Amino acid sequence: MQRPVIDAKNVDLTFQTNDGPVHALSGVNLEIMKGDFVSFIGPSGCGKTTFLRCIAGLETPTGGALTINGLTPEEARKSRAYGYVFQAAGLYPWRTIAGNIKLPLEIMKFPRAEMTDRINKVLQLVDLDGFGGKYPWQLSGGMQQRASIARALAFDADILLMDEPFGALDEIVRDKLNEELLALWARTQKTIAFVTHSIPEAVYLSTKIVVMSPRPGRITDVIDSPLPKERPLEIRDTPEFIALAHRVREGLREGHAA
Ligand SMILES: Nc1ncnc2c1ncn2[C@@H]1O[C@H](COP(=O)(O)OP(=O)(O)OP(=O)(O)O)[C@@H](O)[C@H]1O
After folding, report:
1. 69 close to 4: Cβ distance less than 8 angstroms
2. Hey, which of 25, 50, 212 would you mutate to test ligand 1's pocket, going by the most ligand atoms within 8 Å of its Cβ?
3. How far apart are CA 182 and CA 135, in angstroms?
4. Ligand 1 centroid distance, CA of 50 (Å)
5. Which part of the chain is the ABC transporter domain (predicted)?
6. What are the mean pLDDT values of the chain's consecutive 10-residue runs (258 residues total)?
7. Is 0.90 exceeded by the ipTM?
8. Which segments within 62-134 are labelled E, that is strand?
9. E strands within the chain?
């Protein structure tokens, strides 16, 4: 049997703060398989970012077990198992787009010729061919976010962790980037963990939708999407899509009520 890429067993995390303990994650059980596109959706404070940061080895669970390809998150982080895309593109303004994409490759000491090849390849993947020499301020918000995805893809990690990457963009740009991300996912076979507040975005993108609720942060529903892998934007008008969106909305409502 295939081993999960991300395997969470009863993961718990309590932050100790000056105002007392904050139970950010409680009993989180989840298996993410290779090539899954998993979205995490839930109200503010339900622990979505915390869980992503646990996967990334940036927070340490206070209970349970979490492995990434059989490794501890810290080992996985050291082996560069994932690329991380944040809500704000987070590009260095004094570096060109190519320079920004190059940064992790420099840190990892890739040979110079390979760096150039990789930069060109990921620029093409995110449809920013010819923009490598521009500075971030010369690009629109959507293009900057594509550049930040290119940076996360540059070292070809199998896992992509994305924390509300399109949250700050207008609907039309977001639709376009959603479509592009799906195409990129299909081409690269990456495993993607994606945090969002948007029900349509979660339903459109995911093979698995994880609904969470706060206080303490926990998973209340895991929905395996019956939608086909090929998803034109119009799929959002189909009864299957609407039914899925309804189930997610109901799950969120129950979480709120609790
Ligand atoms: N470093 C920290 N120290 C103390 N408490 C924290 C820390 N990081 C997160 N928290 C708390 O843990 C809970 C979960 O936060 P988290 O950011 O993971 O939620 P979220 O679901 O990603 O929220 P949002 O949708 O607003 O981004 C919140 O109550 C938050 O205040």
Report:
1. no
2. 50
3. 26
4. 6
5. 8-235
6. 91 94 94 96 93 94 95 90 83 95 90 92 89 94 90 88 86 86 89 95 96 92 93 93 95 79
7. yes
8. 63-68, 82-85
9. 6-17, 20-32, 37-41, 63-68, 82-85, 159-163, 191-196, 208-213, 218-224
